[in-house]
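Long-time lurker, first post.

We've been arguing in lab meeting about whether zinc ion would sit comfortably in this protein at all. Half the group thinks yes, half thinks no, and nobody has a model to point at. So I'm putting the question to the forum: if I give you the sequence and the SMILES, can you give me back a predicted structure of the complex? Inputs are below. Any interpretation is welcome too.
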Amino acid sequence: MRSLLLDRIEMLVTWDDGLPVRRDAALLVEDGVVAWSGPAAEAPAADDRLDVAGGCVVPGFVDSHTHLVFGGDRTAEYEARLAGKPYAAGGIRTTVAATRAASTNELRRRARRLAMEALRSGTTTLEIKSGYGLTVEDELRCLQVAAELTPHVTFLGAHVPPDVAVGYIELVTGPMLEAAVGVATGIDAFCEEGAFDVDECREVLGAGAARGLDVHVHANQLQPGGGVQLAAELGALSADHCTHLTDADVAALRESGVVAVLVPAAEFGAGSAYAPARRLLDAGVTVALATDCNPGTSFTTSMPFVIALACRQQELRPMEALRAATLGGAAALGIDAGHLRVGAPADLVVLDAPSPTWFAYRPGVDLVRAVLRGGQVVR
Ligand SMILES: [Zn+2]
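Top reply:
Settle the argument with this. Predicted structure of the protein with zinc ion, as C-alpha cells:
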C-alpha cells in the first residue's frame, strides 16, 4: 500500500501518553496504520501527500451506542413532542411494528445508508443494537443486518415488552439469546419504567454474560432507578444515558469502572434534562459520548453534533468532549481504538477547523474535509 503523509496540521490529536496534542504537525500513514507523527519540519518522505492546510486531525469517532436497524420513522411522534407531549418508552412499539413489516433487504438498505452517513461525518467505529424485532426471527434479522455493517453488534431483545409480554423474559434468555449468540458481541437491556425492571434486566444480562457477551445497560434515562447499580453489580462495560443519578450512582460508576455513555442528542430530541457530564468527569468516572441514533428520540448519526451539545449543554470542555467521543467510546466497547498512537489503525478525521472547539463554535456546519479508515480515504 502506498504511504500517505498528512502535512501542515495546525492541531494533531493522537491521545499519545506523552504528548496527546501537537501543534504544527505531520502524520505518516503506512500499511493502514499510523507509522509516525511529529513536528511538520521533521516529516519523512512519502508516496502521497494530503495538505491539511492549517486544519486539524483527530481520531475517528467511536459511536458506542446506536439503534441503526429499523423500519419506518416517527415524524408524527416527534411533531407531537414539539407540541408539548412528553417522551415515553412505549413509542418504541411503533418502530417494532414497522421493523417486523419491513423486508430484510429494506432494513439492510436503510441501515447501510445510515452507517455511510455516520462514516462521512467521521465515525470510523460503530456499535449497532437490535431491539426492534422482539421475536426470535426478527431480532436475528436485525442482528445479521447489523453484523454486515460492524463487528460491534449488541443484542437488545429486552428493549420493550411486546404487546403480549407473558413469558417474554424466558423467550429472551432462551431461544432469542440462543439465536443471538454467534452474531452479537454484546447484550443490553432497557432498565426503565415501561420497559423492564431491575430483576428482569439482571436475568437477561446475566444470561448474556454467561454466554460470553459484553454487558451494557440502558440505565437511569427517564427517572432515577436501579440501572446504574445493576451495571456496577454485573461488571458491565457501560451504563448508557445516566441522566438521573444519585451520589451513590456516581460513586458506583467510579468504583466499578463502568463507563457512563452519555447521549445528549437523545436529550435534545426528547426535550428532557441533560445527563450530568461535568459531575461525572469531576468524580473520576470514564465518560463516553454517543449518538443513540434511533427513530424516536435521536435520529442523528452526527458525532460532531453530539460534541457540540456536550460542550454547550453539559459543561464539557471541547477536548474533554472529543476524548469522550473517541477514547471514551472505545472504553465503552472494551476495544483499543479512538487514538492515533504509532501502530494504531489510521482511523482519522481531517477537519476544516483549527481546533475541535469549532464543533461547538460552528454548530450544524459540516467541518469534515476527509475521513480515513484503516488508512483508506473513505471521504
Ligand atoms: Zn439506546
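For your lab meeting: The chain has two domains: 4-59+340-377, 61-333. The first strand starts at residue 4 and ends at 13. Whichever side wins, do check it experimentally.
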